[in-house]
């Protein structure tokens, strides 16, 4: 930060020379005195602000010096009390870091267990699915055979209907022949009757096939039920395995959630302990600055702190000088300046009020 020197105001004879001193000279004196005092007060305010900034910067350097001294294990009889407190806090931090690492390891172990459980679950599903596949294939075969038997039955029934029509056709022919006068009607009637007998023999053979096919369909239905039941059983095993998997995964996730919460608590505790270390580190930094222990190791930081101290001292000296000049000024002239300035302000406000109205 740049430092501007406060120039002392020009020493003037503050007492009037007598009645001959005119009004203009008096006004000029009062004005110069007021302006000079305002400048000094502004400079003092600025210097105090700069000093606060420098002191904040110095505090950062002291804190950094304390950290470096603590990490470097600097020893000195005067540091003993501070170091004891820092060691106690550091031991607690180390213990928390160990716990944190243990929780990390536990989480990793659980993640591995989750991966193994997932792999085992998928393998189990694959095995059950492989067992289901043959039963599904068997069901397809059974359904295909059922459909084939149904088709055969329909074909046989259609043929039965056709044969019944043929029987009615031959019966009609017999009736017509019997009522007719054909000389050969007897032999023809016998031929028609023979044809009917042959048709009945064929129908009887068909009627024997249909019950067999119906029985076969019923057996296929039983087999279909068995295959479907087996698939349902295996699907039940899949559902049971899924519920067990979800339950165990939920337990694992709950464990991980609890461990993550503990990790967050540890982080908060560590942050709190580090905050508790800060004042002790600050004290350690001040003691290192005071005793200049192992100065060569901290020369850079100490040099910067010395420079900051010099800047602060320089500004405080300027403030003292400004305050001395303020004490030495003509108090009547300063009072008159304030009255005059206040009057101008009141006049300005009054004018604004009148104009606004």
Question: How would you characterize the overall build of this protein?
Answer:
Helices cover 87% and strands 0% of the residues. It is mainly alpha-helical and 357 residues long. It folds into two domains: 23-55 and 309-356, no CATH class; 83-278, Helix Hairpins.
Element-level helix/strand string: HHHHH
So what's the overall shape?
A: elongated
DSSP strand content? under 5%
**Spatial separation of the terminal alpha carbons:** 49 Å
As for the number of domains, it is 2
Oligomer: single chain
Query: How much helix is in the residues?
Result: over 70%
Gyration radius, to the nearest Å?
Answer: 57 Å
The top-level CATH class of the largest domain is: Mainly Alpha
In round numbers, the mean pLDDT is 82
Task: Characterize the main sheet.
Answer: none
- Uncertain segments: 10-16
Structural category is: mainly alpha
CATH overall fold name of the largest domain = Helix Hairpins
CATH architecture of the largest domain: Orthogonal Bundle
- Figure out the total of helices: 5
Report the strand count.
Answer: 0
Using brief descriptors, characterize the structure shown.
357 residues; Helix Hairpins; elongated
How do you describe this structure in short?
This protein is mostly helical. It is 87% helix and 0% strand.
Topology:
Elements: H1 23-71, H2 80-179, H3 185-291, H4 299-328, H5 331-356
Helix pairs in contact: 1-3, 1-4, 1-5, 2-3
């Amino acid at each position: 930060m740049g430092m501007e020197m406060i120039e002392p105001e020009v020493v003037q004879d503050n007492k009037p020379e007598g009645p001959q001193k005119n009004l203009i000279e008096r006004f000029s004196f009062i004005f110069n005195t007021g302006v000079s005092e305002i400048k000094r007060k502004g400079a003092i305010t600025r210097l105090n602000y700069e000093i606060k900034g420098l002191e904040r910067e110095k505090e950062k350097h002291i804190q950094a010096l304390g950290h470096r001294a603590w990490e470097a294990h600097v020893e000195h009889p005067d540091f003993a009390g501070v170091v004891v407190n820092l060691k106690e806090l550091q031991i607690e931090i180390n213990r928390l870091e160990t716990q944190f690492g243990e929780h990390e390891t536990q989480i990793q172990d659980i993640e591995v267990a989750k991966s193994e459980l997932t792999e085992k679950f998928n393998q189990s599903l694959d095995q059950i699915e492989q067992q289901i596949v043959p039963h599904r294939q068997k069901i397809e075969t059974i359904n295909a055979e059922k459909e084939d038997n149904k088709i055969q039955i329909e074909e046989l029934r259609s043929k039965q209907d056709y044969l019944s029509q043929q029987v009615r056709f031959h019966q009609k022919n017999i009736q017509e022949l019997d009522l007719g006068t054909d000389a050969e009607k007897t032999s023809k009637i016998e031929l028609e009757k023979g044809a009917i007998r042959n048709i009945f023999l064929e129908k009887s053979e068909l009627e024997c096939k249909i019950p067999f096919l119906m029985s076969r369909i019923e057996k296929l239905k039983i087999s279909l039920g068995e295959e479907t039941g087996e698939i349902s059983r295996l699907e039940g095993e899949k559902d049971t395995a899924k519920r067990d998997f979800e339950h165990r995964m939920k337990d694992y996730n709950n464990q991980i959630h609890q461990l993550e919460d503990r990790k967050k608590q540890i982080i908060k505790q560590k942050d709190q302990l580090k905050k508790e270390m800060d004042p002790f580190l600050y004290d350690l930094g001040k003691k290192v600055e005071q005793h200049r222990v192992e100065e060569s190791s901290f020369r850079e930081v100490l040099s910067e702190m010395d420079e900051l101290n010099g800047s602060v001292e320089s500004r405080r000296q300027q403030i003292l000088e400004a305050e001395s000049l303020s004490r030495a000024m003509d108090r009547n002239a300063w009072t008159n300046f304030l009255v005059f300035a206040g009057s101008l302000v009141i006049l300005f406000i009054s004018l604004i009020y009148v104009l606004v109205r």
